[in-house]
Write a structure and sequence with these properties.
Elements lengths: L20 E26 L6 H12 L6 E6 L11 E18 L2 E3 L3 E9 L4 E9 L14 E3 L2 E3 L2 E4 L10 E7 L5 H13 L4 E10 L5 E4 L5 E2 L7 E4 L4 E5 L4 E5 L10 E7 L6 E10 H14 L9 H13 L9 H8 L2 H4 L4 H12 L11 E3 L21 H4 L2 E2 L2 H14 L10 E2 L13 E10 L2 E10 L2 H4 L9
Parallel strand pairs: 1-12, 4-14, 15-17, 20-22
Antiparallel strand pairs: 1-3, 1-5, 2-3, 5-10, 6-9, 6-11, 7-8, 11-13, 11-14, 15-16, 17-18, 19-23, 20-21, 22-23
Helix pairs in contact: 3-4, 3-5, 3-7, 4-7
Length: 486
């Protein structure tokens, strides 16, 4: 409250030439934006024995519950390296003191969503009434009865009132009230949903009508017919979506929706595109899965991929997802990468390599291209490095498939795998042959003298295998007799 006299307002009303006249300059739908306001603050902390600057700063961050980046200055009373204990240190940091309020215009919302109605009005006197109406455009019938019913808190209204100057939210001229885009009764909500559902695009477009409600004062409203945002591209498009999670075919999370229990399971998952202007969700397709399983499978593909080695190839994830659909065995679901994936919320995965895992899972569920070419298994770079005993069955952590299953790799895929692995590690790491029959029966498998894996595709650091059953030719199993030395 510094520099504010007791009993005086924080701001003075704008000076008008005519004290009985105000004028409305805009009315629009918006979302409220809170921006933290910080000021530099000093605190004294007492050093503990053995602490240095780094540890003192870390303790201060923990105790004050701030971020490391909020630290501004570190000033010990006397310079020291490691504290003997009891030294005073003054730390300056950015302390949040308030939130700055602003409003961002929106042109899209869902039924039952909370939005803000914002008006900007210059002047100091008068009362303003704002009604919401639907423009049915080319539709034969309107969805809403005009004026539109909405909620302020729990109370149903058809009109928003602002008292000029008294109801200012953001100085000098911004007024705002939060509303919920729905009527109060369940019966009215159900009737509204039914009307939306009859429309092909399941949407309606809203605008404002504005009136003055105090004849003592004049409020100038310059918009034609006293209507605001009643032009193409300005109206609020209210949509209705089935409950669930909506992901773009490219893996980007678009939104989640839970409008009403009559509109399906909130754990349903949908694939979609967005329109060219990024405003509308289109090409919606319901996926045969539920949200938890969808994310688990996507995280498995992510955990099994080469991303942990810094190698990102989206087709590797697509191929893994395809194989995983046929072969449910995959240990990557418990990997650190998979756990990290599941720990992110949907929006936080956007713009990262994680969207490739989402896109890969969508691809399998819609019957998209199988980038594994029908493979049943996959293996990473660890299978390309044999120990000194090149016929070993296992290293105690995983089996060597070349020795216990045998494989045959085509020329092009062998060269591709060798290049990918050698480029990431080194040329000596890749030391496996292109073709080899299994040399041992292992873990209940009886594959000795057989080839059970044939290369199908290769992406990232991963080889994808088709399962075969090829026995070693008999002549190769019989040792040639040694020639007599004369």
């Amino acid at each position: 409250m510094a520099n504010v006299e007791f009993g005086k307002p924080r701001f003075q009303p704008p000076v008008m030439n005519d004290e009985n006249r105000s004028e409305v300059t805009a009315v629009y739908f918006a979302k409220k934006i809170l921006t933290p306001v910080y000021e530099n603050t000093e605190e004294t902390i007492i050093a503990k024995k053995g602490e240095d600057k780094k540890k003192i700063n870390a303790r201060f961050v923990t105790e004050q519950k701030i971020k490391k980046g909020d630290l501004v200055d570190y000033a010990p009373e006397k310079t020291f390296g490691k504290a003997k204990g009891g030294e005073k240190v003054t730390i300056t940091y950015k302390k949040k003191v308030s939130d700055s309020i602003s409003f961002k215009k929106i042109t899209k919302a869902k039924i039952k969503e909370k939005v803000w109605v914002v008006a900007t009005c210059n002047g100091t006197t008068g009362k303003l009434a704002v009604e919401i109406n639907e423009n049915k455009l080319t539709n034969t019938e309107a969805v809403y009865d005009n004026p539109v019913k909405f909620l302020i808190g729990e109370e149903e209204k058809t009109k928003i009132e602002f008292e000029i100057f008294k109801d200012i939210i953001v100085a000098p001229n911004t007024y705002a009230k939060e509303i919920t885009l729905q009527p109060k009764s369940k019966e009215d909500v159900k009737a509204l949903i039914d009307k939306f559902d009859k429309r092909t695009d399941k949407n309606a477009f809203l605008y404002f009508k504005v009136e003055t409600i105090d004849p003592t004062y004049e409020i100038k409203i310059f918009e034609e017919n006293k209507e605001f945002i009643n032009k193409d591209g300005e109206r609020l498009e209210v949509n209705i979506f089935n409950n669930g999670y909506y992901f773009n075919y490219d893996g980007t999370f678009e939104e989640s929706s839970f409008i009403d229990e009559t509109l399906g399971d909130k754990n349903d998952v949908y694939a979609c595109n967005v329109s060219d202007n990024k405003k509308n969700i289109i090409d919606i397709k319901k996926l045969d899965t539920k949200y938890k399983k969808f994310i688990e499978n996507a995280s498995t593909a992510y955990g099994e991929s080469s991303i942990g080695y810094g190698v990102v190839d989206k087709y590797e994830l697509f191929a893994i997802a395809s194989v995983h659909k046929r072969n449910k065995v995959a240990y990557g679901i418990n990997s650190d990468l998979a756990i990290k994936f599941r720990g992110k919320n949907d929006e936080k995965r956007n713009g990262t390599s994680m969207i490739h895992a989402i896109a890969a899972e969508i691809n399998t569920l819609i019957g998209g291209n199988d980038y594994s070419d029908g493979a049943k298994q996959w293996d990473g770079a660890e299978q390309t490095h044999l120990p000194i005993d090149e016929d070993s069955s296992s290293n105690g952590t995983f089996m060597f498939k070349i020795n216990v299953m045998g494989w045959d790799i085509s020329d092009d895929l062998f060269e591709k795998w060798n290049l990918a692995v050698s480029s990431k590690f080194n040329s000596t790491y890749f030391n496996v042959p292109q073709k080899k029959y299994a040399v041992a029966n292992y873990g209940g498998m009886t594959n000795k003298d057989k080839i059970r894996l044939k290369s199908a595709a290769q992406y990232g650091l991963t080889m994808f295998w088709k399962e075969v059953n090829i026995s070693k030719p008999k002549e190769d199993n019989v040792s040639k007799p040694k020639e007599d030395k004369k």
